[in-house]
Write a structure and sequence with these properties.
Layout (H helix, E strand, L loop, with lengths): L4 E6 L13 H19 L3 H7 L1 E12 L8 E11 L3 E10 L2 E14 L5 E2 L4 H11 L18
Antiparallel strand pairs: 1-3, 2-5, 3-4, 4-5, 5-6
Length: 153
């Protein structure tokens, strides 16, 4: 598995604001859809959530808006794992339109056991081991970027 998870999303007409470009809230929605795609690919999918009673929560999120996005654009969002421990992980995503970078996002996420009430807990060992393998990949562009988020207790 490569440490680059690609998600495509067309810009919907209801995402366009009075300035005739994508409203800021919808950048977040598109990034969230891309993160859901990442989670499905690594094993935190609907089946896992239903069977385990565990899920993923966003603890911190930073977005950077670089260029306007217009109606009819096709968003390509590339997401990569940039750091992880047994309970939390950091994702970096880049949103592009026709090979032009339009926004970036960094998210700190936590593995949560929802029973009996939400609590941060260790993720399954097999997923954590796959995260370690993803982080070992030498050609991952996201590892060369300066990161704003860090794992902390």
């Amino acid at each position: 598995m490569l440490n680059e998870f690609v998600f495509n999303q067309p810009v919907k007409s209801e995402w366009i604001d009075y300035n005739k470009h994508m409203q800021d809230a919808y950048y977040g929605l598109a990034f969230s859809y891309a993160v859901d795609h990442f989670q499905d690919c690594v094993g935190f999918d609907e089946r896992y959530r239903t069977q385990s009673g565990c899920t993923i929560y966003v603890l911190e999120d930073h977005k950077f808006y670089l260029n306007e996005v217009k109606l009819g654009s096709e968003l390509v969002i590339r997401t990569s794992l940039v750091d992880a421990d047994k309970k939390k992980f950091i994702l970096h995503s880049e949103m592009s339109v026709q090979d032009t970078l339009v926004a970036t996002s960094e998210m700190l996420q936590a593995h949560i056991n929802t029973n009996p009430r939400p609590k941060v807990t260790e993720m399954p060992l097999e997923i954590y081991e796959s995260f370690k393998k993803l982080l070992e990949q030498p050609n991952n562009v996201f590892h060369r970027r300066s990161r704003k988020l860090t794992l902390h207790d």
